[in-house]
UniProtKB/TrEMBL annotation:
Gene3D superfamilies (alphabetical): P-loop containing nucleotide triphosphate hydrolases
Source species: Mustela putorius furo
Upper taxonomic lineage: Eukaryota, Metazoa, Chordata, Craniata, Vertebrata
Matching InterPro entries: P-loop_NTPase (IPR027417), Sialate-O-sulfotransferase (IPR051589), WSC_carb-bd (IPR002889)
Coiled-coil positions: none
Family indicated by similarity: Belongs to the WSCD family.
Protein name per the record: WSC domain containing 2
Amino acid sequence: MAKLWFKFQRYFRRKPVRFFTFLVLYLTAGSLVFLHSGFVGQPAVSQNQASPAAGVPAEGAELPFLGDLHLGRGFRDTGEASSIARRYGPWFKGKDGSERTKLGDYGGAWSRALKGRIIREKEEERAKYIGCYLDDTQSRALRGVSFFDYKKMTIFRCQDNCAERGYLYAGLEFGAECYCGHKIQATNVSEAECDMGCKGERGSMCGGANRLSVYRLQLAQESARRYGSAVFRGCFRRPDNLSLALPVTAAMPNMSVDKCVDLCTEKEYPLAALAGNACHCGFPTTRFPLHEREDEQLCAQKCSAEEFESCGTPSYFIVYQTQVQDNRCMDRKFLPAKSKQLIALASFPGAGNTWARHLIELATGFYTGSYYFDGSLYNKGFKGERDHWRSGRTICIKTHESGQKEIEAFDAAILLIRNPYKALMAEFNRKYGGHIGFAAHAHWKGKEWPEFVRNYAPWWATHTLDWLKFGKKVLVVHFEDLKQDLFVQLGRMVSLLGVAVREDRLLCVESQKDGNFKRSGLRKLEYDPYTADMQKVISAYIKMVDAALKGRNLTGVPDDYYPR
């Protein structure tokens, strides 16, 4: 046998072309066998598995909907159940706790038909496709919440997000954008125009350029419609011209918060104002800006249909923000012509640069760029992230640079400064937990945190000092002031960018100021990570920056920077 093998080996070593020919023929034959079994093969089924009593259909019987076949529903946890679970793939729970199937890749015409049937029935249970619709950035077809993911968007993900918020329709656009709404406010177009594949799902269409693939979410009962939780905005004085400030009014003898919020949500308005037995709906405008809150006792009139809720009075309104998205500030695009100047949005890492970019994009309607490239930011909708920072297509450029050469490359700058104690912790969380994650307890208690403070605390000071020294036309904005008085501070920033300030657009930004990169406050440290030595060093840096600001006739650092 060994001699035969050596002869075989020597034969092909002398004639390598024959060897490769033999290899190609072998692979071709194997491929043909595989394809033949995939198209005409029939999976072998034991007698027990083929029995209807075991939960698997006999030949010719109607195929069951596998979404209903799981432990506890349809069969007991027996050997037969285990074999069925292995055959149809593992089960897993969705976010809402409901059972869902994970389809495997099975050979055979029977298996492919089963898989296609399952997908269709699951889609029909969850949502029904109703067509391709025209969409316009100035007047959206679906005017509820929206979100983007330029890497992992799927039809199910969009439908699931809209359904969780109680919307009736979900629409996908550009292969990566998801829009929700309670009614479609656009015309139907040809199916051929929805021709863009989903970024996270091959073979599925997710709209097109300004075209929405729209699904109607199948809710069990109309009475079961939920509009999500409304946000309490406060007690406000009745506006002078009520019909212009809040254009929709309805009398409600049995007034409740839910009824008024549901009405305004149905009418596609982001504000619901309760005034005793009347419900008013509208947008935040200069006539009703929601800037001057009143004492809540002035609105403390009980609702007629809710014993423990206040429904306001004819003179003082209780205001809630509904789940309807204010689309007056959602349109964004690149600059129509190349900008003649480069404006930096400069900050120390962790000082809120990404948040400021979100605000600027909403306020101006133009994308912001970056000195770097962060794929996670691009995937979340910051489309200017991929442009070269000198492209001139973006309204301003994010940068953390602090060298003279890098600073002098810009014609103007917005310098965002944040409390170093907060900024250092935010950047440490980002470094070890991502944009909206948190560093682990071991990182705070280990050597990473002291080393980080030792390296980054001096940079916090030198970053500001360098931009004040080498920067041209620098507008200083304190992160804390931007949070406290967004309307005024964002107006200053927009003016420097050379864009006309539209007050209604700034009010729209106020209602959606958080964006997708707000770190939750639920996981705050239970102790102060700064030692006495760290505080002593950082306080010296704060005084240095404060003196530099005042030396240029600017407002010094906010009082809450120190003492610790």
